[in-house]
From TrEMBL:
Keyword Membrane tagged: no
Example of a GO MF term: tRNA (guanine(37)-N1)-methyltransferase activity
Function according to Swiss-Prot or TrEMBL: Specifically methylates guanosine-37 in various tRNAs.
Alphabetized Gene3D superfamilies for the sequence: 3.40.1280.10, tRNA(m1g37)methyltransferase, domain 2
Superkingdom of the source species: Eukaryota
EC number(s) stated in the UniProt entry for this protein: 2.1.1.228
Upper taxonomic lineage: Eukaryota, Fungi, Fungi incertae sedis, Mucoromycota, Glomeromycotina
Name the record gives this protein: tRNA (guanine-N(1)-)-methyltransferase
Organism the protein comes from: Racocetra fulgida
Main location: cytoplasm
GO cellular component, one term: cytosol
Amino acid sequence: MINFIYLTLFPQYFHNYFQISLAKKIRERKLLDYQVYNLRDFAVKGQVDDYPYGGGAGMVLKIEPLVAALAAIQEAYPESYLILLSPQGRTFTQTEQISIGDFITMGGEIPALAITDALIRAIPGAIQTESYQQETFQNSQLDFATYTRPEEFAGLKVPAVLL
């Protein structure tokens, strides 16, 4: 049996997915199972993000809840293979009319939601204009390094120029 483990701020996305469609039938046949961890459960008072050092729009996920959550997951599932999704990561691709990656899904719902999520950011008023302008592919770059509190974590420090 394959076991999928998710770390998220929105557990219901995954619970809903595994309660419907072919994923439900595959799970009922005990070919797969899943667990969902809520990142807020690993944060002080549920606070998982903070403002970026050096200014800029939006929020940045804090390192402490991420490290705590990943440690708990790796302790519970020591043989697991960890995949962190990131715009800077290798592209998960597949050629289609419109593709979110080089792979096949059991339906178009998940890719449709991914595309929808990316597109609704462009709707005026959906997010702060500054966030859209700063975070959307400027100069063919996906993003720049961002930092938030604490100033130091596990010997790693925020660059002094940002403080």
